[in-house]
Amino acid sequence: MKTKYILRKGESFREAASLKTLRTWVHQNQVEASDMVSSDGGKTWARAGKLPELIPFFPADSAVKAHVARGYIGKIERRRKSIEVIDMIPMIDMVFLLLIFFALTSTFEIQRVLEMTLPDASSGRPVVEEKTLVLYIKADSQVLLADRPVALEDLKAELSSASAAGNLTLVIRGDSMAPHGSVVNVMDIAKSAGVGKILVTVRKQG
User: Degrees (nearest 5) of the Cα angle 134, 137, 141?
Assistant: First the structure.
């Protein structure tokens, strides 16, 4: 239950009111510092100008604030400043809008991976795939150049065009079930097309 305050001006009494209403009266100069206020139904009385909850609401040039201790005024001012906060809601809304904008305008590229079973070998070295061209030979002897099916009769022209720009390294990834003759045939075509370096990839044992 909220505390009710009774205001006594001389011999007259005002009806019990809330602290908010009492502060409004003080701000409107309806309450003087010498008026008496009771918060316990009239059992005890105190001057309005000495109540801490009313002091900040008297006019700045009133006699009340002139007699209030300097340190207490400082506490009142610090309490008022602490109430002032920065509204972060507009900034948060702007951040979310930027996130949605970048999410909608960004494009994602999915790299396709051709699953193959490479033959095992105990020797070999890692292949650096920079400035290289990868050729796949599937178990059914189908040839794919950079994930794109290519007929054997067109393979030489494709490799010649790719090696014309410079020294080309061709990485052959043949399925372990692919016929040996298919791998040899592809290597022969690559040599005749001017490929400078041919590598055959295997899967290391162990």
Answer: 155
